[in-house]
Amino acid sequence: MEINNIHDKFFKSMLGNMTIAKEFISAFLPKKTLDVIDIDTLTYANTEYVFDDLKDVFSDMVFSCKLKENKEKDSYISIILEHKSYRDKFTAIQLLLYISYGYYTQYKNTKAIEPIIPLVFYHGKKGWHYKPIVELFNGLPKELKKYIPVFDTKFVDLGKFSDEQLERLGNAMLESMLLLQKYSTNPDKLADKLLLIYKKLDSVKDRNFIRTIVVYSLEIVKLKKVELILEELPKTLKKEVMTAYDTLIERGMQEGSTKKAIKVILNGYKKGLTIEFLSEITEIPIDEVKEILKKNGMLDS
Questions:
Q1: N or C: which end of the chain has fewer CB within 10 A?
Q2: pLDDT averaged over the chain?
Q3: More confident residue, 48 or 270
Q4: What is the rounded distance in angstroms from the CA atom of residue 62 to the CA atom of residue 26?
Q5: Same domain for 144 and 24
C-alpha cells in the first residue's frame, strides 16, 4: 500500500469513531465557532448524497451538526474535514469545489442552504503555509482581487503543536492518534515515541482502536525497533502488539510469495509456457493468471 494511502486509511478509521471525531473537532475548531454549535449532535453526513458527482475527487469526511441558537427549528452546519499528509499548493481550489458543490446540492434538494466550515488537517514532513485562493495568483492587480472567492479555512499543521500540548488534550485515544500522525513521516523519531504512545493505550478499552493504532505504527516503524520495547509494555497491551506484529510478518511473507509468483508467470509466459501450466506451478487460478498477464500487456483483454 502506498504510504499516503496508509496515512489516509488510518485517519479515516480514527475519525470513524464518533467519540474521537467529537474530541478532534472540539480540539481544533476555534472556541468562538464551538460556542455556537452543539457538538453533542455531531453526526456523519452522507457524502454520497451531498457530493454524489464528486466521488472521484472527494476523499475525506463531512459532518453535520446542529446550531445552538435557533430553538424553533433545527438549524445545521456542515464541517468538511480534509486530510493531507503532503503539501498541496492548490488545496484552497479543492475546498472551493467542495463548498460550492455542497451549497448547490443543498439548494437543489431543499431550496435552503446551511453554513459549511472547511477544516484542513496536515501532518507532513515540512511546514506548510496554507494559501487562500487570492494568494495563488502572481501579480494580480488590486482592482481584480474583489472578484476572487474568499472564505475562511481552519488550517491545522500538526507539526506546530508540541508533544506537551497534544498530551494535555485529556483523551488518551485522541492523544495517541495525534502523536502517531505527528511523527508518521519520521520513522526514527516515531520509534523513540512509541513506548509513550503505547502506554497511553493502557487505559483504552476499545480493542479495535488499540489494534488500529498498533498496526498503523508497525507499518511505519521497523519491526526490530518495536521488539526493543515489548518487555516494557503492560501484559494486555503486549499481547495486542504481538498479535499485530505476527499478522504483519505473515502478510509480508504472503506479499513476497505473491510477487515471486507473478514474476514466474510473466517470465514463464514470455518463454512460451501455457497459462494452464503456469497456473499449476504457481497455484494461482487460471482466471487470475490471465488477469496478471492482461495487466502487464501480455494478453489481450
A1: C
A2: 85
A3: 270
A4: 15
A5: yes
| Cβ neighbours of residue 277 closer than 8 Å, sequence gap 6 or more | 268
Residue 249 resides in a domain: no
Is residue 245 a part of any domain in this protein? no
Q: What is the mean pLDDT of residues 77-104?
A: 88
Instruction: State whether 5 and 153 are in the same domain.
Output: yes
Which structural domain range is residue 183 located in? 162-233
Q: Which DSSP string do the residues of 242-263 spell out, in sequence order? A: HHHHHHHHHHHHHHHHHHHHHH
pLDDT value for 148: 96
Has residue 239 been placed in a domain?
no
Name the helix (H) or strand (E) containing 111: none
Find out whether 45 and 105 touch, Cβ atoms under 8 Å. no
CA distance 141 to 258: 58
Indicate the pTM of the whole model: 0.76
Q: In the listed set 233, 265, 285, which residue is the last one of a domain according to the structure?
A: 233
